[in-house]
């Protein structure tokens, strides 16, 4: 795996984890009983993106390390994912 491949893998892992983390502990304006005029009631009541970014980083880094370790060890290769036999050895 090249450095560029590792960075792309980390970015994909980070954003996939972010989309899983975003809904947790999010209070809507309706739940907080403070709806700002011009916004929908389901909009978040407070900004917590910095905390969610840190949580995402703490979760995504070990996941990325596990996936990178599997790729670098050769335990799973591209040929293993060739289910239709289109790649020649």
Quickly give the structural class: mainly alpha
Shape: elongated
The mean pLDDT is 89
Instruction: State the helix count.
Output: 2
The percent range for strand residues is under 5%
Number of strands: 0
C-alpha end-to-end distance: 19 Å
What can be said about the biggest beta sheet? none
Quick rundown:
By secondary structure, this protein is mostly helical.
Q: Describe it for me?
A:
This protein is mainly α and 89 residues long. It has one domain (3-81). Helices cover 49% and strands 0% of the residues. Helix 1 packs across helix 2 (49-73). The longest helix is centred in the C-terminal third of the chain and has 25 residues, at 49-73. It starts with a helix and ends in a 16-residue tail after the last helix. The model has no long low-confidence stretch (mean pLDDT 89).
Key phrases:
49% helix; DUF1467 family protein; elongated; 89 residues; mainly alpha; DUF1467; membrane; transmembrane; 0% strand
Write the layout of secondary structure elements.
Layout: H1 3-21, H2 49-73
Helix pairs in contact: 1-2
Pfam families: DUF1467
Transmembrane segments: 6-24, 53-78
Keywords: Membrane, Transmembrane, Transmembrane helix
């Amino acid at each position: 795996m090249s450095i560029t491949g590792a960075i792309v893998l980390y970015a994909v892992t980070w954003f996939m984890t972010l989309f899983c983390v975003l809904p947790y502990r999010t209070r809507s304006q309706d739940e907080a009983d403070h709806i700002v005029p011009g916004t929908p009631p389901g909009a978040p009541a407070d900004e917590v993106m910095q905390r969610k970014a840190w949580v995402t980083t703490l979760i995504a880094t070990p996941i990325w390390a596990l996936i990178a370790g599997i790729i670098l060890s050769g335990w799973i290769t591209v040929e293993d994912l060739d289910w239709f036999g289109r790649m020649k050895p």
